[in-house]
Amino acid sequence: MPSNFEISFDLSQIEEVASDLLRQFKSKKIWAFDAEMGAGKTTLILALIRQMSEMKPEGSPTYSLVNSYKSDEYGEIHHFDLYRLNSIEEALDIGIEEMIYDNLAFCFIEWPKKVEQLLPQETIWLYLSPLENGTRRLEVRL
């Protein structure tokens, strides 16, 4: 996969897509998932976490804002769901800056536009869109 690319896939291919993304972008620690509600952000992030560890991820951290996991191979993994975030101050209160700038932890962020000003330049942006036939389009930009 080149640095910027676009693919279409259906949910039966989600584990393969997650594996391919990790293989291509393993060096990127901050992943911003931008999409409308129901486009598949959480589903893709959970597939990524399954590929990275033996853990069975819990789903979206909608109310807690962040779920954290540990992987023998990848280290710490943070899954943020910022949908209910009301302000940058709230993000700072949960320690988002420390987690993002840890340099060792992977951060998968849903609704990243709410904290875009905090994200480092090297953030990988993933844009998901549902298509008419039940597939998803994924565009990745570095």
Structure described in brief:
The chain is α/β, with parallel strands linked by helices. The chain has helices spanning 14-25, 41-52, 88-93, 96-100; strands at residues 5-9, 30-34, 66-71, 75-81, 106-110, 124-130, 136-141.
Task: Walk me through the structure.
The protein is α/β, with parallel strands linked by helices. The protein has one domain: Rossmann fold (3-Layer(aba) Sandwich). It has four helices and seven strands; from the N terminus they run βαβαββααβββ. A seven-stranded mixed β-sheet has the order 1-7-6-2-5-4-3, covered by helices on one side. Strand 6 (124-130) and strand 7 form a beta hairpin. Helix 1 crosses helix 2. It is globular, with a radius of gyration of 14 Å.
What topology does this entry show?
Elements: E1 5-9, H1 14-25, E2 30-34, H2 41-52, E3 66-71, E4 75-81, H3 88-93, H4 96-100, E5 106-110, E6 124-130, E7 136-141
Total strand count, please?
Answer: 7
* Terminal-residue CA separation: 12 Å
Query: What is the structural class?
Result: alpha/beta
Question: Helix content range of the residues, please?
Answer: 10-25%
What is the CATH-assigned architecture?
3-Layer(aba) Sandwich
CATH level 1 class label = Alpha Beta
Oligomer: single chain
Proportion of β residues?
25-35%
What low-confidence regions span 5 or more consecutive residues with pLDDT below 50? none
State the major sheet.
Answer: 7 strands, mixed
Widest sheet: strand order?
A: 1-7-6-2-5-4-3
Mean pLDDT: 92
Order of helices and strands: EHEHEEHHEEE
CATH superfamily: P-loop containing nucleotide triphosphate hydrolases
How many domains comprise the coordinates? 1
Q: Specify the overall morphology.
A: globular
The name of the CATH topology is Rossmann fold
Please count the helical segments: 4
The whole-angstrom Rg is: 14 Å
